Amino acid sequence: MDYAEYLQHDATALARRVARGDVAASELLALALDRNAAVHGRINAVCRLLEPQARAQLDRAMGGALAGVPFLIKDGVQDYAGVPTSFGSRSMLGYVPTEHASVVRRYLDAGLVVFGKTNLPEFALKAVTDPQLYGRSSNPWDLGRTPGGSSGGAAAAVAAGIVPMAAGNDGGGSIRIPAACCGLFGLRPSRGRVSSGPAIGEVWFGASSEGVLSRSVRDSALALDILQGAEPGDPFDIAPPSGSYADLMRRDPGKLRIGFSTASPIGTEVHPEAVAAVQRTAKLLRGLGHEVEEAAPRVDGTALAESFLHIYFGQVPAMVARGRALGAGTGDVELTGRLLATLGGAMSGARLTAQLAKWNTFSRDLARFHARYDMLLTPTLAAPPLRHGEGDPPAAEQFVLDLLQRSGLLGILARLGLLEGTVNRIARDSLRFVPFTQLANLTGTPAMSVPLHWTADGLPLGVQFVGRFGAEDRLLQLAHQLEGAAPWFDRLSPLAREGLGQTGKVPASVDA
């Protein structure tokens, strides 16, 4: 098998070819490693290779639904026994788990050949992937732009043709945002659908979910079959699906009632291309027989954004403390992490509790919307993928905040309540590019980004669907229908096409 044929198949098809003996798992691993070597210097997607571990897998008898398919996990939450889980931070390099995370064990049990870990921003805090530890990742569609975050390395790896599917997780849009930036499909499951154990009960108070970024809907459905279901000791176990997602996905979704909105929930600007993406999708949906009208849940977007920010305030000080316990120094944490740790340390437990209590209000507001509409359609991003550095705070502001933090004045001002305006402005600025995704995280509902739009400049710009709690099957059914009506599998990034030789074309897809 050559690279062109490799690109022709999704993970499901590759696994079938391995099972039939048409191609060896070692041959697929070699293709993935060669492809990573060819593009690494330009996209920096894979931050740690696990080639010895992958080859050891090949030496053992493999079974499972995706046996022999090369795969990448994210260097945050997804612990691989004996290998550091850095969370994109120098401060966490001393954390070497002694057992696999449940999701990693399930990937391995499914036969996926894990040969590396993907890049992410420090502590998975950003919608761009630019850690000081490993360096910035770039978008295969335009190397001068971000692949999104926090699963940006995973998205870049799939869009560059290294693997057909890669693992991510989503605490504020971290699967959907990079999927939208890189022309991929990304589904964030409902809270509790996939275990975060055993090292963690609920990531970010339950706002985060595990999933994959893929080129095909059926790969994501099969991955969810592999991942779904509670582990012993999990906080709770939600109702299982009525069948396998791979089978449920193929059913007709029926006539759906879908409400759509292009207005930013925090009142910020939405790029005309993002508006056009939703309008184009609404037209496509109507053509498929669905009832589509402009409507949005009555959720206070500003309050939700503020509550989301308090996830950081509650979590980052604990992460920094973990690093210090491992021997990390102050300089091993980036400026953003240090600032958030200081602000979080100055916040009272009562305030954090009050913010977390608001999640109930958001969930009930969204449930009232879903009593009338099956799904909510919005842009995934408020603008096309950002150019590198475009969303960074001004250098002068970073200097002042760094000085305040190092002097101890930042904590004093925070405790006195004198930074409210500054914090709110920073929060608004940081979310203006991605104001649509946090609703699903705080309410625990499933949501997906579907690659249905490309800008006039040829950049991908996905659209988001938010479904009812536990209704991943309906989202997958709609995605499968949309995939048939407006196919995207063979729409490859310039970097992926570059490996195809003079024609730059991949042969017609084969459903092997």
From TrEMBL:
A UniProt-annotated Pfam family: Amidase
Residues spanning the membrane: none
Ranges where the Amidase domain occurs: 27-394, 430-476
UniProt-listed InterPro entries: Amidase (IPR000120), Amidase_CS (IPR020556), Amidase_dom (IPR023631), AS_sf (IPR036928)
PROSITE patterns xrefs: AMIDASES (PS00571)
Residues annotated as signal peptide: none
UniProt-listed SUPFAM superfamilies: Amidase signature (AS) enzymes
Coiled coil: none
Family stated for the protein in its record: Belongs to the amidase family.
Listed name of the protein: Amidase
Species of provenance: Massilia haematophila
